[in-house]
TrEMBL record:
The lineage of its organism: Bacteria, Bacillati, Bacillota, Clostridia, Lachnospirales. Residues 1-162 form the FAD-binding PCMH-type domain. Gene3D superfamilies: 3.30.465.10, CO dehydrogenase flavoprotein, C-terminal domain (3.30.390.50). This is FAD binding domain-containing protein. The keyword Protein biosynthesis does not apply.
Amino acid sequence: MVTIQNYVRAKSLEEAYELNQKKGNCILGGMLWTKMQNRMIQTAIDLCDLGLNEIEETEEEFSIGAMVSLRQLETDAGLNAYTQGAVRDAVKDIVGVQFRNLATVGGSIWGRFGFSDVLTVFLAMDTEVELFQGGRIPLKDFAEKKQDRDILVRLIVKKTAGRFAYAAVRNQSTDFPVIACAASCVGGEYRLAVGARPHRAVLLCDEEKFLSGGVKEESVKAFANWAKAQIPTGNNHRAGAAYRTRLIGVLSQRLFCKIGEA
Ligand SMILES: Cc1cc2nc3c(=O)[nH]c(=O)nc-3n(C[C@H](O)[C@H](O)[C@H](O)COP(=O)(O)OP(=O)(O)OC[C@H]3O[C@@H](n4cnc5c(N)ncnc54)[C@H](O)[C@@H]3O)c2cc1C
């Protein structure tokens, strides 16, 4: 059980950051993960008054505030038009609508959970993370970083012309994924993000140029075989490493074929 001693609705990001420097204090997202822990929080810091609950779209980019819910991602027309529904496909099986109305982008990305559909899908795009102290850094670099006491302010997705597709395998609907794959072709570069390996999601770019001649049955197969060898997988109680590696091969072929049809 979580016990909260003090609750503060921060009036500015500066105030939230200062409060968050004290070990024992904690930023609140939707609290769905935090509430499952057994811990005492001295001061819970709520960002709900800081206007971070909007998805803003300009000609160049999407700006997604840390307090945007997963349900907002799922239903945002602009984001889903740009990603051909990949964002919706990534979050639609996360527990249920009521859960997705509460779970936030900030908590999901900050957590860098191994099982994260959210981290996986955004890794396949041109995404940056804006940190209060650390400024803007690529999501790929953020995903590799250890947790510190900074604040995730927003995600920025550049509207580089691209095609996207997402698929995950679950043993049972609404369970954590056994594997999560997001494929993309962004600015001509083919990419595959794989999460739930069961470790944290990683991004693989087509450095060997398997797909540079276009998405054809043979080139997709060659890329998939290469991806299987490049991406380490592991065992947990949901699935074994060999099964996960096999799934990477199957899903990446399906996703790149889907991208090729567009
Ligand atoms: C039962 C269950 C099933 C789930 N299934 C899936 C699934 O299938 N796929 C999937 O992708 N995810 C899944 N999740 C994860 C979920 O989608 C959210 O990612 C998770 O709950 C964290 O989001 P939150 O808003 O609840 O964050 P919280 O629990 O409030 O916060 C999580 C952590 O992030 C920190 N934090 C929050 N916001 C910020 C910020 N702006 N800056 C800095 N630190 C911050 C908090 O201090 C805390 O340490 C599941 C979670 C649960 C509890």
